[in-house]
Amino acid sequence: AGSRARAVSVRNEISYVMVKPDGVQRGLVGEIIGRFERKGFKLRALKLYSTPKEVAEEHYKDLSSKPFYKDLVQYILSGPVVAMVWEGDGVVASARKLIGATNPLASEPGTIRGDLAIEVGRNVIHGSDSPDNGERETALWFPEGLVKWDQTLEPWLKE
Ligand code: GDP
Ligand code: MG
After folding, report:
1. I need a surface site. Which of 54, 91, 113, 121 has the fewest CB within 10 A?
2. pTM (predicted TM-score)
3. What's the domain range around 73?
4. How far is the CA of 144 from the centre of ligand 2 (A)?
């Protein structure tokens, strides 16, 4: 903490992370949240959510021209999701590493998708792909805002 210079400067960011309906149905919520908690990131928002169609379509609008777009929106609407926002230095890229490659068969073992999924159309989790999208997706999924709190173990996580 504090303003001391660090060897590598990494920005504090937020990432929108979501356990998709297959992850909820398969009972993977605790497993997935646990990985982010154990890493040390700070949870800023969390809800079990029955996604409105407009939110799902807005979330994936950049993929609207893809042949799988309709199935993708249907997949995301097929049951409740667990929507979360995690904060931390470099959390966006780090979360993507924890999550693994989009296609679970190409995801490294040790990653969430690498350990827990086999198909791209059932890849259990979403994570923002850039800090800007972390902000944008957070505003879309949590218009009610985030929870402000002090993480008391911070001195044990950050020099
Ligand atoms: P992500 O950022 O790793 O989630 O991947 P993308 O942003 O490229 O795609 C968003 C989501 O669309 C993925 O997580 C998959 O659920 C789905 N998706 C991506 N590519 C394909 C595909 O080729 N086929 C199908 N069925 N779904 C896909
Ligand atoms: Mg993406």
Report:
1. 54
2. 0.95
3. 24-145
4. 23
